[in-house]
Amino acid sequence: MALANLLRGTAFFAGFLPSFSRLGYEARRRRWPSARLNFQGQRWLVTGASAGIGRAIAVGAAQAGAEVVAVARQRDALERLAQDLPTGTLRPLTADLSLMQAVEQLARQSVARHGPFHVLVNNVGAMFNQPATSEEGLDKGYATNLLGHYHLTRALLANGGLGTAATVMHMSSGGMYNVPLELERLDSHRRYDGTLAYATHKRAQVALNGWWRRHYGDAINSYVMHPGWVDTPGVASAMPEFRRAVGGLLRDPEAGADTALWLAATRPAQASPEGIWFDRALRSAHRLPGTRDGAHVEALVRKLDQSLAALQPPLQLTA
Fold this sequence. Notes:
The protein is α/β, with parallel strands linked by helices. It has helices spanning about 1-20, 20-30, 50-65, 75-85, 100-115, 140-160, 185, 195-215, 235-240, 240-245, 255-265, 295-310; strands at about 45, 65-70, 90-95, 115-120, 160-170, 220-225, 275-280, 280-285. It has twelve helices and eight strands. The strands form two sheets. The protein has a six-stranded parallel beta sheet, sandwiched between helices. A two-stranded antiparallel sheet has the order 7-8. Helix 1 packs parallel to helix 2 (about 20-30), helix 5 (about 100-115) packs parallel to helix 6 and helix 6 packs parallel to helix 8. The protein starts with a helix and ends in a 10-residue tail after the last helix.
């Protein structure tokens, strides 16, 4: 099993290297028209905003005129971020988004303080090399990468936290191309593989985005994207061998943030609810054999709802 995973991983990374690395980004960006972003009068909520891609999104939105509510666990990192931006453009909020009670409190607090948001970026994510359980008894990766995104979006919808035709972006990963949607792998600690669990969370985000578009398309513009391979603190800590191997070919966080900012600025039509945005274009969600197999999104939604319903004390905000 370990050898099979190694061979599959090696083939995957080698096959996608030209596109997902800095090489692909630099080649494509030459064809993009230059345009000045303008988010004046908009309020954004960006999770995982203290470092990496989330920080780059928060900075890009604030520099283009948005008022950004930046959410992360580390207050000092958020305060340093605020110091790098024009006064009044960034509002720091601390929250541990692996805890659903904290996610619910964030939804209430952010709306009460700042009003409805024009843009929500579900960016926070974490990869765990060993099984980890939250204080609420949930797998931390599942809670952080998927369940918290789902609950925050539903809670904001229920609480009037998303304005008319708000844009909601879900930050996936190119790693999802390597796996089908397997519900058991989302939160099981049996035969745990942190890389595959993370990829499955990201595959679930892609499937779930189609559900958002079908069920909430009149209320929100929902997009799922992946940033390519980006040099972030999370990659450095969770995938040091990969970082050493790819080295200078990784994208910088600003390149990783580009499509998110472009989607918010252009809000492109999406004829089908399926697909994933990458480098300013809608791409197929499946590139490898077997990834179309697995659970249906309705079963995924039932699992997410059951995870939330089982928490004590009970959650209040659901759409």
